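Researcher: Here's my situation. A collaborator sent me these components and asked whether they could plausibly form a single complex. I don't have experimental data yet, so a predicted model of the whole assembly would be a useful starting point for our discussion.
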Amino acid sequence: MSTLQSGLLPALVRYYERLERDPGQNVAGFGFSIEKVSFCVVLELDGSLSSFADIRDRGEKGKATPRRILVPDGGGRSGIGLKPFFCWDNTGYALGRDNKGKPERAAQMFEAFRELHRSFLHELQDDEGFVALCRFLETWEPAGAESLDDWDEAAGLNVAFRLRNRDSYVHDSEAVRSCWSAHLARQMGGESGPRGISLVSGEEDELARLHPQIGGVSGANTTGAAIVSFNLNAFESYGKSQSYNAPVGERDAFRYSTALNRLLADQARKVRIGDATVVFWSDSAEGGEAEAVFRDIFGDDQGMGNEAEHAATVSRLKVFLDAARQGRLADALRDPDAPFYVLGLSPNQSRLNVRYWLVGTVRRFAERLSEHVGRLDVIGARPDDPPLSIRRLLWETAREPKAIAPQLAGEVARAVLGGLPYPQALFQAVIRRVRADSVLNHRRAAILKAYLIRNENEEVSVALNKDHPDQAYHLGRLFAALEKVQEESADSKLNSTVKDRFFGSAAATPAAIFPRLLRLHQHHLNKMSSDGLRITREKLVGEISGRLDRFPSHLPLEKQGLFYLGYYHQRQDFFTKRPDTNPEANNG
Amino acid sequence: MRMSIRLKVWGDFACFTRPEMKVERVSYDILTPSAARGILEAIYWKPEIRWRVTRIQVLNPVRFTSLRRNEVGAKIPAGTAAAAMKGGRGRLGMYVEEDRQQRAATILRDVAYVIEANFDIVGGDDNAGKHLDQFNRRARGGRCFHRPYLGCREFPADFALLEDGEPVPPVHEEWAGERDLGYVLNDIDFRDGMTPHFFRAVLRDGLVSVPPLGDREVRR
């Protein structure tokens, strides 16, 4: 078993190292990065242009997506200075023409691009690809770009270079790569920024002044944002500037940001919860199945449109959670003790904020998830209902999805993953919604139940419990019975029922409402058409009333939750026994 | 006579900010030695002594919560302040409404620790017992120069002296076994360009030993 890394950056660096060891992962080494490249300039050996090839992948609908290829790292650009990349760049730099409508600027960019490559020529004079590239740059006329095939589409996009009849790009050659690495090493040695102890590895290294940007966090800058950044001077301490406030070695900064960018680019490991983008990963290759389950529970109902996929999701979850509940995880998972990490990031200005960072083993997280799912289990779910993902639960807290408190989403996820009590705000929000719209559906009942069990230590069963010790529960049952009688007395032809009018207030202030409801109840009873039914109902109301000593004038919030659950259970009970009556009302 | 002290500290919230995540603050999992030193200095400090935290016992499980606060984005430039002092006039004001920065923080809640520390005499007469007595007397009576805090000023710490022979309060079962927290800030070396020093925090049943600053373990 590998040890847990409690720090975020060290865990990411370890993940990078794992990727690096895995030849199938195609991970960028130090000084290289994976970039989106759309076109390729194909050259003859003498540097003349052979063709201009579109290398984008075409999706099913013909939508072109740039290819992600490994290139010498340009390190990003900012400001207006000229900074060409090595052996690849956008058409402005690489060909001297782009779609920005500033030919003079493009000409300068091309000039800078040419100079950069020329400066490497004496080192790389034996590499025929690079020599051809230089010859091409010497003779290329930017105006010629406009007559290239697909120029309208290509303008401004990234291009790379390749020799005709070769599979690999110019920058893929061993000589070019090692020359680039040597160049970087020289550059770092030359500038010689401060050296120090990297707080990630504890080893001495050149310290990073700026950290690479992290992309793929929803809501953040599209060019990326940084976790480690000091973009205003109020954030700096002890007279240190920029990231010297947090000494991280250049190599560690590169490793962690590469690993994190990779995780964030992987749709299978990323979900959105509230305003946070959450990624999860495992240190072991066998952790993949756990990652899939996490996606299902936290995820965005990906399989909704696709029945087969949806069914697969449900069955995968079921197998997994059953195994966790019965302590058989070791059989269901190949490596239950593998470390498992959950990172929630949310943007704030141009920075990233670590919303939560949870470290554990696959087994521990699985057990917490299964406990959570067990607590949510309440009667009334239909067999084809999707699993209660966190997102679905949160929908019940607000009138519309965008009104969900972002903070709340994060706290719920933290509670579930950390095995902690649920946030009180979740419970309050659901009670408030029930009071506002008088809807008590399966999901709301599930939230109330889970909260009461975890936070209040109340005992709440999956279905009706006639011997529940708490009066609030029976008050809810009584309300359900009274409502039922009203419905039956009017043959379900009511515009509004007692529930529409009194549900919330009956839960909050029973003494003010119930005497009135009982008076109404007498009228309803008299109107009932069937004697048999009337007697059944009178018995039920009698049975419930027998468990109540009095109507309390006020119920505290957690008791209101019990009230609603009592109501929900009793109501479900009516339908369980008589499935032919109005199944629509199941959710009501 | 034992020359070390043991102090229990606890509080509702704490933020021992990680340097790498200090803008959008994220706390370390445990009390850092420099924060512990700050607490001791709040209770008793004299120019003649220098506190040295030797061990930290973590009592409560690690729980996080998050919050956002409004802060400012700029410092008043030192040059302006110096010019104002010299010239006797000038504007030093800063308007928070114009320079607001909302910052998020992921902080600890319900923390409790036992700090074990001793001190070096760096000046004056070499009467360690005097300083020890003063610290113990002050800590016992709950006296302090300023209110000690848990990492950030806004998270006050309660404290109580653990007397000789008094057992360490129970440690939460979550801490059973060994836990490696990676590199944690030990302290800042103010005499050497304010260089931060880190140490490998390995907890055994929640107890971490802090190497002295300048120790091989700190710098590696």
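Model: Some features of this prediction you could bring to your collaborator: Strands of chain B lie at 4-14, 25-26, 49-58, 64-72, 100-121, 158-161, 178-189, 195-204, 207-209. The mean pLDDT of chain B is 90.
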